[in-house]
Amino acid sequence: MAGKQNELKQIETEMQKPGFWENTEKALDLQKQFNALQQTIEDFSALAKEVSDLKELYALVDNALLAEELSEKALVLLKKLQEKEKQIFLSGKYDANDAVLLIQAGAGGRDAEDWVCLLLKMYQKYCERQHWQYQILAQDFSEAGGPEDRVGLKEVEMEIKGHFAYGLLKKETGIHRLVRISPFSAKQLRHTSFARVEVIPRIKQEQISVDLLKPSDLKIETFRASGPGGQNVNRRETAVRITHLPTGLKASSQKERYQPANKKIAMELLAGKILRLKEQEKEQELAKFRGQRTEAAFGHQIRSYIMQPYQLVKDHRTGIEDSDVQKVLNGEIDKFIQAQLKLSTC
User: Which is the most buried residue in 115, 124, 183, 336, by most CB within 10 A?
Assistant: First the structure.
């Protein structure tokens, strides 16, 4: 808590400087950080007092009825502590940031494109459970077909706004595997599909350094935004795609009606991808130093969702399992996220 209190003092000092509100967007971001930190400190202080009070009461207890009452209070306090535990593990530089979720169809053809839609709904449901806001930034639809003439997604990008959105979701990055009876198979054959999930921090333009995105390193393209079935939803080329030539990383946006606005969003997304890549490189170097085996970025199958011949969701990193696949696909992924957060800090 001492570190968080020092961080709060630093932000408070910055907010008291003359001209603080000259850059409104930056000022609002700092104010958001200040409020979040202040709330965290107050919550932990209140919990610390509850723990202290409970210890004192236990020392004085002398009858079974009072002991039972204190046990009930201890259970309530344990749940509060488990909820606040998240904040202990979320100390990364960008953990408190909003996030951008990217899902891309892998091997599996039309089934994989349908799998992208299912994963997108799962994360949207999770966001709703967390009371976060989300918005689609870009999406590439497949051709309609199969049962109910359903339309799949080749890839999709979604912005998620919420405190610690990036910190909680960043370990969802990796390959997600689905095993089921294919709805596109006339012979009702079992099919395995793959999709790649990537989570990056949402970086604001003023946080992007000149060295991070040099104009000479960028390839900027414009295109028409597309809708279901490949139809163009805009006659002008308002959508923007930017490629970072040194790394090959790409980012695009088509949500806004005007090209400059989409370019700004694409630049921020690309900055987030580059920073995430640097973060992963540091993690891999640290793992080598510790003598741990590292996996190739984005190439590691992190979780399997099996619908047939049995029902099971299994995280291959933590060993956490759940036999209720539908519940998981409805956004109840908290235990997978929390287990991975704890494992990452070991």
Answer: 115
**What's phi and psi for 2, nearest 5 deg?**
-60, -40
Is the per-residue pLDDT at 290 higher than 80?
Answer: no
In the DSSP assignment, the letter for residue 256 is S
| Cα–Cα distance measured from residue 141 to residue 153, given in angstroms and rounded to the nearest whole number | 4
Q: Is the pLDDT of residue 32 over 90?
A: no
- Is the model's pLDDT at 296 over the cut of 50? no
* Residue 255 in this model has a pLDDT that exceeds 70: yes
User: What Å distances lie between residue 24 and 19, 39, 94, 183, 206, CA to CA?
Assistant: 10, 22, 20, 51, 11
Helices (H), 161-256: 165-169
Confidence (pLDDT) at 234: 52
Strand spans (E) along the chain: 99-105, 133-141, 153-161, 174-181, 190-201, 218-223, 239-244, 249-253, 301-306, 312-315, 321-322
Sheet holding 239-244, edge to edge: 218-223, 239-244, 249-253
CA distance 318 to 225: 40
Rounded CA-CA distance 248/273 in Å is: 11
Across 119-140, average pLDDT: 94
- The fold adopted by the segment(s) 99-344 is Alpha-Beta Plaits (3.30.70)
Residues with Cβ within 8 Å of residue 208, at least 6 apart in sequence: 267, 268, 271
Residues 6+ apart with CB under 8 A from 118: 178, 329
